[in-house]
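Troubleshooting log. The previous structure file for this entry was overwritten by mistake, so regenerating from the original sequence record. Sequence copied from the archived sheet and checked twice against the printout by T.R.
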Amino acid sequence: MPALTSRERDVLQLIARGQTTAEIARTLGISHFTARKHRSHILEKLDLHSAAQLTAYAIDHAMAADARPPAPTAAQLSPRQRQIALLVGRGLTSKQVARVLGISPATVRKHREHIAARLGLRSLSALIGYARSLEPDDAGHTANE
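Regenerated output below.
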């Protein structure tokens, strides 16, 4: 991991746990603006270009035992929603997902909203954490099987 300050590492861990910028600010006792600046610095240092990439990186590298929220069952999603969730879980933006699937970015955003509502997820981090649990491991099993 590139040289992040201890505060930036704290922010990265909280992102991995699914906290929003406002929640990170409250948790760390800092202003919302300062939390946003920390996120911005992390993006720059890690050469990441979107919130989705930052969240995927945080989940992969924060090494927090409780970084991933418990995953609802995949049966709650339609096949298209599952497909979109998996692509978002790989760090793709709505625009990139739209390009891959040949649909509009607005349609992807609407699917993301429906996925989050159906599963009770409050943040992009939570959605990415859920999507990562859908990915099969080396033995072909998913976290919610």
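DSSP finds eight helices and no strands in the chain. Archived copy saved in two places this time.
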